[in-house]
């Protein structure tokens, strides 16, 4: 036993002295970082689709830039501009694509007119929630497909935030059946709006800044916005008093970082790693912040007099779901690129639902 102990002691001493020798000797070789000019500074611009100071979303984009600056010791310095400060909000994608700016923050469904299939990387009605979207994008092949879709535009995408499940919206009357949707004027954009029209509703396009006044003056009968936190800040509870859930049309809207391809390629490997990992960190952080702020705002809304927080009737949701499948299929039938992404999305969604049904959903269903 004693000899064994002694041997182990000697071996430890030897390996320690080797470690010390290495440390004090020549610099370790690292082929990935050998050619990096650590003095070179990159000054980039990032434009977003959000109003200046917009809580969580614009704030998150700015925090992301701050974190990159800190982690890179100032080598990558990104100045963030809110929508309209440098580029109109809905021209963000083009500005990144053309290299006018290096980065953008928004959501893929804003570019539906240019890239219809991009909507699957944002959200679609009755689609996946944040958990499913992250699983698909990071580990289920979704992000690779997304990169392929943006490649012709010289743009590289990263998930950068998620709103979580949104609310169904504010209505000036009760929705008890499909008949109550007929002729209803509602601000509801995107595929959700198309589905709403098929159900007999009258979708209206309105910028965020016009939503409150339109509802308050009865120019519209209903509006969706985001969730309890942002909805309360906009004061929507003062303009209508029926608050419906869930947000069937936006079950987990992914926010995106877009990077100009040439700018991305110009970054050394260590800065690329910092950006990629800062994006993952901020993706989680924004979702977490949304969840916390929404649960807190919900509690406040529940205390307000006259506000009714109501579920959509099952019959209404079932019909909207059928109409969503029809709408997506119609789009797929006329657009092969849309069809390819739709099929990949659906394949993952079906498996994700089967697993969620016996994990998170089953657990949450316990009273
Ligand atoms: Ca919304």
Walk me through this protein's architecture:
The protein has helices at residues 2-24, 57-71, 92-98, 130-139, 142-150, 190-198, 208-216, 228-234, 261-266, 269-303, 314-334, 336-358, 360-364; strands at 42-48, 76-81, 103-106, 155-162, 169-171, 185-187, 202-204, 222-223, 242-245, 254-260, 308-311. The radius of gyration is 25 Å and the shape is globular. It starts with a helix and ends with a helix. A six-stranded mixed β-sheet has the order 7-6-8-5-9-11. Mean pLDDT is 92; it is low at 16-28. It is an alpha/beta fold. It folds into two domains: 42-162 and 253-292, Bacterial extracellular solute-binding protein, family 7 (D-Maltodextrin-Binding Protein, domain 2), CATH 3.40.190.170; 169-249 and 307-334, 3-Layer(aba) Sandwich (D-Maltodextrin-Binding Protein, domain 2). It is built from 13 helices and eleven strands. Helix 6 packs across helix 11 and helix 8 (228-234) crosses helix 10. Calcium ion (CA) binds at residues 166, 224-226, 250. Residues 166, 224-226, 250 line the site of calcium ion (CA).
């Amino acid at each position: 036993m004693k000899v064994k102990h002694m041997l182990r002691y000697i071996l430890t001493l030897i390996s320690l002295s080797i470690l010390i020798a290495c440390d004090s000797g020549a610099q370790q070789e690292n082929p990935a970082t050998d050619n990096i000019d650590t003095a070179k500074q990159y000054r980039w611009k990032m434009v977003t689709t959000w109003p200046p100071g917009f809580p969580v979303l614009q704030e998150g984009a700015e925090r992301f830039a701050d974190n990159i600056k800190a982690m890179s010791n100032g080598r990558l310095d990104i100045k963030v501009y809110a929508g309209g400060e440098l580029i109109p909000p809905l021209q963000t994608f083009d500005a990144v694509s053309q290299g006018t700016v290096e980065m953008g923050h928004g959501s893929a469904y804003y570019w539906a007119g240019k890239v219809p299939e991009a909507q699957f990387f944002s959200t679609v009605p009755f689609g996946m929630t944040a958990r499913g979207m992250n699983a698909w994008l990071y580990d289920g092949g979704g992000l690779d497909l997304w990169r392929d879709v943006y490649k012709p535009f010289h743009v590289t995408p990263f998930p950068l935030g998620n709103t979580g499940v949104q609310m169904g919206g504010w209505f000036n009357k009760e929705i008890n059946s499909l008949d109550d949707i007929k002729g209803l004027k509602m601000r509801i954009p995107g595929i959700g709006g198309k589905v709403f029209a098929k159900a007999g509703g009258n979708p209206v396009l309105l910028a965020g800044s016009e939503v409150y006044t339109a509802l308050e003056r009865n120019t519209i009968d209903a509006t969706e916005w985001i969730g309890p936190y942002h909805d309360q800040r906009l004061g929507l509870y003062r303009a209508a008093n029926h608050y419906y859930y869930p947000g069937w049309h936006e079950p987990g809207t992914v926010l995106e970082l877009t990077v100009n391809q040439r700018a991305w390629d110009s970054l050394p490997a260590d800065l690329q790693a910092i950006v990629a990992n800062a994006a993952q960190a901020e993706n989680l952080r924004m979702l977490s912040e949304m969840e916390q702020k929404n649960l807190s705002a919900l509690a406040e809304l529940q205390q307000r007099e006259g506000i009714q927080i109501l579920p959509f009737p099952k019959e209404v949701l079932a019909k909207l779901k059928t109409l969503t499948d029809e709408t997506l299929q119609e789009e797929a039938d006329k657009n092969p690129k849309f069809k390819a992404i739709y099929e990949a999305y659906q394949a993952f969604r079906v498996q994700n639902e089967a697993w969620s049904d016996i994990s998170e959903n089953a657990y949450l269903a316990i009273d």
